[in-house]
Design brief:
By secondary structure, the protein is an alpha/beta fold. It is 42% helix and 24% strand. It folds into two domains: 5-129, Response regulator (Rossmann fold), CATH 3.40.50.2300; 156-262, Beta-Lactamase (2-Layer Sandwich). The protein has ten helices and ten strands. It has a five-stranded parallel beta sheet with strand order 2-1-3-4-5, sandwiched between helices. Strands 7-6-10-9-8 form a five-stranded antiparallel beta sheet, with helices on both faces. α2 runs parallel beside α3 (64-74). The radius of gyration is 25 Å and the shape is elongated. It starts with a strand and ends with a strand.
Length: 266
């Protein structure tokens, strides 16, 4: 991650905050400290791009779970961790979903475990951000495809046959692969998608996907309906393949559009 990683630490014991600061003194982290939940919310509001929040559970006034719940509402993208003594374990575990807490670390903590937990939390933050970015890009691409298809239908231009302008004339001009599946049947596949998948487009169209598409792509399509948005695999020419998908609202008939991109061959 290129930007500075900011970690907000909240604990009413100053020696705990100093211990965390010392532990990460050699790491490329910016440590922000607060001695109460109220101060933590103020620091969270005034600080840019806080990636990880570490909070003690037992604090005067607002406890750690209450603080993290409010922090989640204020900055839902942050990864939240709660520290607590063993006596509070049952209470913390019971309330852990309220603040959408990533991990519970008991006091006294193991330094190696805490370091690893923080490192994984930073990775998770970066992954969530990348997924959000890709979802936005996929949504924009889907809207563009819908706009192009609508424009063709509206104009009703007839080229080379009775069915009007073949959508592939437009789809084949796109710099990324486009594949659509309706009720397990392949409906669209542009030239870029055919090359990435190593398939003959004409042999795939209007055929059951299980008969004409690679098994890993079929598996991904099945998972899209359960909420999965992206998948990484290997293209037909050995390059890394990225698939981003969205399920379309077609009533009871499952409809999916997939955008395929391959890493540069350079």
């Amino acid at each position: 991650m290129d930007e500075t990683v900011r970690i907000l630490c909240v604990d009413d014991e100053r020696n705990v905050l100093r211990a965390i600061e010392r532990m990460f003194i050699d790491e490329d982290y910016e440590i922000i400290t607060a001695s109460s939940g109220e101060e933590g919310l103020e620091k969270l509001s005034s600080s840019e791009n806080v990636h990880v929040i570490i909070s003690d559970y037992r604090m005067p006034g607002m406890n750690g779970v209450e603080f993290l719940k409010k922090a989640c509402s204020l900055r839902p993208e942050t990864i939240r961790i709660v520290l607590s003594g063993y006596a509070d374990t049952a209470a913390v575990v019971a309330a852990i979903n309220e603040g959408e807490i990533y991990r519970f670390i008991p006091k006294p903590w193991n330094e190696d475990e805490l370091r690893m937990t923080i490192a994984k939390a930073v990775e998770m933050f970066a992954l969530h951000r990348e997924n959000a970015k890709l979802s936005e890009e996929l949504h924009a691409k889907s809207l563009a495809l819908e706009h192009l298809s609508g424009a063709v239908d509206q104009q009703q231009v007839s080229v080379g046959g009775p069915h009007g302008l073949d959508h592939f004339i437009i789809l084949d001009s796109l710099p990324f692969g486009v594949l659509s599946v309706l009720a397990d049947t392949v409906m669209q596949m542009n030239k870029a998608a055919a090359l990435l998948l190593g398939r003959d487009r004409d042999e795939c169209l209007s055929r059951p996907m299980g008969q004409v598409l690679p098994a890993d792509i079929c598996g991904f399509i099945g998972r899209v309906l359960a909420g999965e948005k992206s998948w990484t695999g290997v293209a037909a020419d050995g390059r890394m393949l990225r698939a981003d998908a969205t399920a379309l609202d077609q009533g009871a008939t499952p409809a999916i559009v997939i955008v395929l991109t391959g890493e540069s061959s350079a």
